[in-house]
Amino acid sequence: MADLRNYLCWVPGTASATVSTEAVNPSAGVFLATHAPLRIRRSLINGRSLTPTDATVDERTVLQDFLDAKSNTGTLLMPVVGDSGSGKSHLVRWVREHIPPSARRRMIYLEKSETSLKSVVEKLLEGAEGDSLDQLRKDVRSFSEGMTEESLSRRLVNALNEALAKTGPDEVPSKQARILSGPKGLAAVLQDPYIQQYLLASGKYIPQYAAQLLNNRNLENPERPPGFSVEDLPLEVQEVKQASVIAQRLLAKLLSTPSLQQDAVDMLNEHMESAVKSASNIGVGRLVKAMLEVRETYAKQGKEIILLVEDFALIQGVQRELLEALTEAATREGRQRYASMRTLMAVTTGYFRDLPETVMSRVAASTTGYVYDLDRVFDKANTGIEEIASFAGRYLNAARVGREALERTGGQDFSNACESCSFKTECHESFGQTSEGYGLYPFNRSSLLRMVHSVAPPDRPWAFVPRTFLGNVIRPVLIDSADEIRDGAFPTKRFRERFQTAEVDPALPTSVDEFIGNHNHVDPDRHRLVLEFWADAPANPGRIEEGIRQAFGLPAFGEDSLPTSGDGDTSRGTGTINKIMPPSPPSDPVSASLKRKIQSLEDWASRDKVLDSNLSRELRTMVVDAVTRRYLWSSPLMKELGKGEIDKVWPARATTVSIKGATENVAGAEKAPISFSKNATNSQFFQSLLLSQAGAPGARSEATWRLASIAERYAESFSKALVESLESSDESLVMGLRVSLMGAALAGRVWPGMSDTDLTDAAFDDGSTWNRRDLESRVPAWRQLLEKHLRERPTLVVALRSRLGISQGATGAVRMIDAARALPLVLEAARSWRWDASGGVPKWVGNTTVSGLSGLDSVVGQQTSQLKETVAEIRTRAPRGAEGKATVDAVRASLGAADTVGLSPNLVERQRILQLAAAAESADWRAVTIAERDLEAIASTSAEGRFEKAFVAAARDHGTSLQAIRNFLVASDAWLTRALADASERKDAMGDSVTNEVQRLLQEWAALIGAEGTKE
């Protein structure tokens, strides 16, 4: 088989010079050689609307009808309508080329490029002489040569202003438009200097019109709009307050009333012609008079005038007068005064429907009652592929043959370049040929149809617009892509940018897209484009014409490497065009809703469509659930959360799982831990997940493995999210543990310097059984802090346990703490006992829980001061070495002795001392020594560590011992001191004996408290 790779059967420069998008550009030879039969139908004129008929005709019928149709008035007007680029001007040009030469005809041809007033008038008056005609030519020439575009633009605005100022309330399109009439209406807006700046801005309609009224249009430049549009209204003026009050009021009304905007546009277009006449000094009626004079001249010569107009919209400004002159009856009072006229004019369908009433009435009166309609109506049942292929084939052959060769033959009996090509047989078999025998290389029928659909107007996806097809399909491929074809790089990325997949065409299945990505590692994108456009997006990547595969240098796949199943039409490809899918059988296991989801995923990847929000949410949920269900809750070890709690931590939103091309209007989606690109592989993955979830056939086993891999890979991301959401980082946990330890210290359970085990036990104890025995000896501030902490502590400890523990049992309660992680954190928390919240407090710790801890230093200081006072009061009455039991016994003995000498306290005081003595007897007198040591440690420690020593002294729970000892000693000391004083005052013998007895007891007391050591 001959190798077509890198082969060009045309010269790009020759193709550029031969293939033109405008009918007026090519020579007659090229024009006739590339002409393809047009699809023409008759549409009846019904007021302002057109009613299509089933009557289709060819070009020769139009020509015959145009030349032979009879008119009672001697004037015939035959419109050719169609959308821009549909071939209207082409048909007018074809008629011109086929009108037989005749001495009895005067042909006037107005080309669409000849937009200047000078060109139009000179063409219309050409061949006719007379003083008035010469003067008109002179005036128009003077106007064209002596006026700049800017000055003409301003004159047009002012002329429009004057014309609109003369409108009355009954001369407007609707009742609501009456406010636009007169000098205070739309005219006032145009008269405003500030508004004029907007109307005269580059790109607006008036400057464009002025430019083409003075100069012929360069066909390389875009056509100007046929008239004003809503976009030309000054509705987007930035500083509207700079305009006049009247203009501001009208603009506000226009902005709030869309229908009034269209009325304003209609009024501007209605008065544009009179503005042109005023601005150009032609004056009303001069063109009518001149054209009638021309008709009189040719009537005397016995000639009929043939007027061919390539674009009626481009002679705006003289339309009414021209139509008046063209439709003026040839016969008056029984004799022919003016030459008969036949006018064939091309006009866009929309412009024809919007012609002013005065113009439309003349058109309707001078036509045959119908127009020739070139709007091509293809559909799914009739794609028009043969007409399109025939059209393309003629231009492809012209590009190969070249302009000079075609011009030599005059467009007749020209050669078919394929006949002399050594690749003809293989090329035509692979890429196809037209019924005329022209090869379609480098296209084929599938690629041509898909490219036509790709460049079609969005509202008419089946439309074939010849000008667009030539300019956006044929020329770019033959000229711009010639080097790419020669280098074996075609189609490139630029091709995809030009030709997006049309809605009416099936996209390349993502299963095929993915397969190519996995098997063609050299040039997968080019391979995909060839399969989509030249093989009609087959469901099997192997379904491509062998000659096309070789021409594009694509790899061949063995049967064992091709997918065995896939979505889409498995019969599509190898040139089959748009096969209609048969309906699914009743037993189809895939539900309709699931099919819609599958198709949505196909369109997401292959058509670059936005993924439905509900579907993307479902997919995100599946991925999130896979990660969270496989999570072991062991790194770090913590209580397993329920579904509701997980949703708060890792919601199935775009901030967790980002799917490119889905509706993700959420801040932070770009930082999502899991992200899926828009590609065929992910589309197939998601499709398999949906199929698997529904228990439907077709799911890929590798999707399950990939989901498991995702779950494992992103477990750490989930863990980080947990830590962040639950605020369970080491720093946050240390903060919570420190609060817990401080609370435990307030309860007398721990203090600085205790063992790791004691600290850990206290940190995770909810305090429900705690009862501080020395609570009565605590300062009020301490008691308040403790009371507040114990209220909040259960919640705090539950939070700590859930973050550092394992849940077990049916209730899910935490039964085990991760000691390996918890112990270092507890020790870190115990490194400092001063409260510092500068780093922030985790939400789960709670502001209420830590409320008051900022004043802990002061509370510790108060409690330490009180402890010092208590110890001092004890030691002044029971110095070091005093034995507790001996002291109690001595007081009891003193009470007995006092009873015998009458120095006993009163009954109440006696009873109280005995009670205090009993309490002191059962108290642990070692508490005094321990408290002394704690206090001495404070004094002997440097300032840096003094607070922790103070905290030890303040936090230690001494039980009731210190208070019992202190109360007993104070009460006993008060009684004995008073008793001794009473004994000293007695003067009798009894008093002396009492005094002696008391003194003996005091000596015994002194002996007791002076003894060395303390017996424990």
Any idea what the CATH architecture of the largest domain is?
3-Layer(aba) Sandwich
Strand order within the widest sheet?
2-1-9-3-8-5-4
Structural class per helix/strand content? Answer: alpha/beta
The outline comes out as elongated
The CATH topology assignment of the largest domain is Rossmann fold
Q: What is the number of helical segments per DSSP (H or I, 4+ residues)?
A: 44
Share in helix: 40-55%
The CATH class assignment of the largest domain is Alpha Beta
| Overall pLDDT score | 86
- Low-confidence region ranges: 565-571, 574-584, 1011-1016
Q: What profile does the largest beta sheet have?
A: 7 strands, mixed
Report the β-strand fraction as a percent range.
5-15%
- The tally of domains stands at 6
CATH homologous superfamily (4th level) name of the largest domain:
P-loop containing nucleotide triphosphate hydrolases
What's the end-to-end separation, in Å? 116 Å
Number of strands: 13
Short description:
The protein is α/β, with parallel strands linked by helices and 1016 residues long.
